[in-house]
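ARCHIVE RECORD
Type: protein–small molecule complex
Small molecule: zinc ion
Source of inputs: curated submission
Record status: active
Notes field left blank by submitter.
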Amino acid sequence: MKSLALLTDLNNLEEKNKLIDYCKYENLEIDIFYQNNNFSEIKLLINSEQISKIIISSPKSLDDDLLGFCKKMISLIDLKILIFCASYDFPDPFQNAIRTLPYFGNSPQRISRIKESINKKASRGQVLGKIPFGYKKSSSSLFIVEQNQADVIKKIFNIFLENKSINKTVNELNEVSSKKWSYQSVKHVLQNDFYIGNYRRYNILIPNSHEPIVNNSIFTAVSDEINNKVSRKYKKNSWNKILYCKLCDSKLVTTSHKNYWYSNGERKSKSYKYYSCKNINSKDSNCKSLSISCEKLNSLLEQKFSGYNFFDQKYSDKYLYKIVSELTSGKIDFSEFKSEFQKLVFYLDNSQKVIKKIFVNKDSKEIILSSS
Ligand SMILES: [Zn+2]
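STRUCTURE (tokenized, with ligand):
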């Protein structure tokens, strides 16, 4: 298995020396130096030379745009290639890329001003991500157990198994712990298989890489409990995000009404849900009649709009930055990142065909739907 060093310019001695220094420091050997002119050539090279590691001089040597960079990173990681960035401060290629590469035509400087807080979070996460709570690094850069912290980690798993609730775990923990724990940080601990001895770099898993703090059966029991909770989550109705009143252009709201009646002396009730214009109660509104049963409108919408793509607010131009930040801070794992990234790419590729709003109107006979 060989290592490939990727430069923006093979003739740039400064760039080359910087990368060589970094590799010496990190004990990485370089077999081939290459300049990226064509990504498919790199893929051929990976095959023919059996490349297992790539060291990039900077994210720019892979791509000069964050979107293209992520596409290439994902396809390399899918090939099980380990990728390093020759930077002492930000050796994680993704984390380096959100600081240096432009995306959607915006410079990263501009973005980092807008998203300063996410930036800070990401760098905090990076420190936590490098040495998980419960471990320290030995002089030879190996992870060894930090006993006091490890006891806290064990406690987190035990409290969760007793209470089956992350919120309760957080509360109980904060009563006895000097470190302040949040919902996210506790959830991150409970889902982090580093504690059973696994080491991951993106999707590459090295089992038994270090001494575990938690045993497998406890970790599995906790994962099962958390996954069950997630699948029990209430599934949101997605239509209501894009329904608007044709008459006044305001968003439709959902309301519910309960009807009561008596049958054989027994009180019965049933709830009905309605989409209504939010101006339905205002005096001089023309929208008074706009209240339609959800069941009825949903089935009409499914007939008329199934197969269309809908505008999703979350895919604004900061979304890519957000998911890369979440990946580098460990908030989402690589497979979640990949699936969100693919949804984003699909959305960008189809943005011309996307429906942003559906207008609802009603005359005496029928419901009228139109879109934009
Ligand atoms: Zn209205």
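CURATOR ANNOTATION: Residues 182 and 193 are 19 Å apart (CA to CA).
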